């Protein structure tokens, strides 16, 4: 019997979680990924690196973020106790800064001068631009022209933070083209720059590295929950886009008898193109350099996906989620746009916390199952705050009267 903790066992040294993960990239990218992997393995053991990251988390990010007992919601739903891990209180308002600061520090230790990435809605771009400013690194964010027009406030934020936003004007001018453009820019100068992926996706070592940087959410949660209640939660729930906030909180409880539920966006319904529920409806395939479960169209290419939450709008999922679901260590649920918006208003009006629409998916599932689980405790990862979403929500749903 193998008693090594799960996190030390997975992934293997090639980046596999069972059949999922790995690195399926052209030779020039493989070389660059190998360099990042070697540096990360060295630096992750380095006491200066660890001490520096601790200092940053405490004094710059404002960690640990609290766990909050949502007493009004718990009372309203009359079942399980509902607790929230408040990643919305992490600096910049979401969990993404946890891995961006790690990636920035790694780049600094590697002697890099520039961080490069793509962004869809701009959340990853803003977090990375923040990290770049902190470390005195240049930052170049590639973004489709369609997204630039849609996500104006985040474009402004990135520029204020000193990042260069590169408009991508070919193809559909959205996330996929932005990935191609960013990789191309990176491969022009892999010596001085580092590519920084925004979730637990992409070729090895990114799914491992981003997970490792996010484990702080789970480590804190376990300690705080025990201190608050004297026991572990029965159920931990997080939304899953690429899967970084979910892996962060799950990793704190993965070796314990705690139920772990990932929530995928059902969007407008279960027809292909109307949702982004990759684990629920997808099949095995390779995309963006890794093997996982993905949504495919009839020509075997990534299917078009949709969710009201732009951070969950991705046709694949981190390989570790594919593995954990496959071995039945995690469960997957789906939540529609409408259910997510209803939870958005519930938390705002009941507790005075406006959540990100992404996080509202996780909360919505907790509210759905809570009434029948009296005596149990549910911990929800509130991955981000909803300031970015308020104009859009009010325009589409008013102040929630009709929900
Ligand atoms: C980006 C984002 C997500 C989705 O990303 P994961 O990698 O699945 O965590 C979830 N919540 C918020 C607030 C985000 O900004």
Radius of gyration: 20 Å
- Hetero compounds: pyridoxal-5'-phosphate
Total strands:
14
Helix content: 40-55%
Q: Determine the mean pLDDT.
A: 96
User: What composes the largest sheet?
Assistant: 6 strands, mixed
Strand content: 15-25%
Can you walk me through this structure?
- With 403 residues, the chain is α/β, with parallel strands linked by helices.
- It folds into two domains: 22-56 and 95-204, 3-Layer(aba) Sandwich (Rossmann fold), CATH 3.40.50.1100; 62-91 and 214-395, Rossmann fold.
- The protein is built from 16 helices and 14 strands.
- The chain has helices at 6-9, 27-43, 47-61, 71-77, 96-109, 123-135, 145-150, 152-160, 175-188, 206-229, 244-251, 278-281, 319-326, 337-351, 357-369, 390-397; strands at 16-17, 20-21, 67-69, 81-86, 114-118, 138-144, 164-168, 193-195, 235-239, 259-267, 283-287, 290-294, 330-336, 377-382.
- Strands 3-4-14-9-10-13 form a six-stranded mixed sheet, with helices on both faces.
- Helix 3 packs across helix 5 (96-109).
- It starts with 5 loop residues before the first helix and ends in a 6-residue tail after the last helix.
- The relative contact order is 0.15.
- Bound molecules: pyridoxal-5'-phosphate.
- Pyridoxal-5'-phosphate (PLP) binds at residues 94, 96, 123, 199, 239-245, 311-312, 356, 358-359, 383-384.
């Amino acid at each position: 019997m193998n008693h090594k903790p799960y996190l030390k066992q997975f992934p293997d040294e090639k980046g596999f979680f069972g059949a999922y993960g790995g690195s399926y990239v052209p030779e020039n990218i493989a070389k660059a990924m190998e360099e990042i992997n070697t540096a990360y393995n060295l630096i992750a053991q380095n006491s200066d690196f660890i001490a520096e990251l601790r200092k940053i988390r405490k004094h710059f990010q404002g960690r640990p973020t609290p766990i909050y007992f949502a007493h009004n919601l718990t009372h309203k739903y009359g079942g399980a106790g509902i607790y929230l891990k408040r990643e919305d209180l992490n600096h910049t308002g979401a969990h993404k800064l946890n891995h961006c600061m790690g990636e920035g520090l790694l780049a600094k230790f590697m002697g890099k001068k520039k961080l490069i990435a793509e962004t869809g809605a701009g959340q990853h771009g803003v977090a990375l631009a923040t990290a770049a400013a902190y470390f005195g690194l240049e930052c170049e964010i590639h973004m489709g022209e369609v997204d630039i027009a849609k996500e104006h406030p985040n474009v402004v934020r990135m520029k204020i933070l000193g990042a260069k936003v590169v408009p991508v004007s070919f193809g559909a001018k959205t996330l996929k083209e932005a990935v191609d453009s960013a990789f191309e820019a990176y491969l022009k100068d892999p010596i001085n720059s580092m590519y920084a992926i925004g979730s637990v996706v992409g070729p090895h070592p990114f799914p491992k590295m981003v997970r490792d940087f996010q484990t702080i959410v789970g480590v804190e949660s376990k300690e705080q929950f025990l201190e608050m209640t004297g026991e572990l939660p029965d159920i931990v729930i997080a939304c899953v886009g690429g899967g970084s906030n979910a892996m962060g909180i799950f990793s704190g409880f993965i070796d314990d008898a705690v139920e772990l539920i990932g929530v995928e966006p059902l969007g407008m319904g279960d027809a292909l193109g109307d949702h982004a529920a990759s684990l629920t409806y997808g099949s095995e395939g390779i995309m963006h350099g890794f093997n996982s479960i993905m949504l495919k169209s009839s020509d075997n290419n990534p299917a078009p996906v949709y969710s009201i939450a732009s951070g969950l709008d991705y046709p694949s999922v981190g390989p570790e989620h594919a593995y954990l679901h496959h071995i039945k260590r995690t469960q997957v649920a789906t939540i529609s746009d409408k259910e997510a918006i209803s939870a958005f208003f519930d938390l705002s009006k009941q507790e005075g916390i406006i959540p990100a629409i992404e996080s509202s998916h996780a909360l919505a599932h907790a509210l759905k199952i809570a009434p029948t689980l009296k005596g149990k405790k549910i911990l929800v990862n509130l991955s981000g705050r909803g300031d970015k979403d308020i104009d859009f929500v009010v325009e589409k749903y008013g102040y929630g009267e009709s929900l």
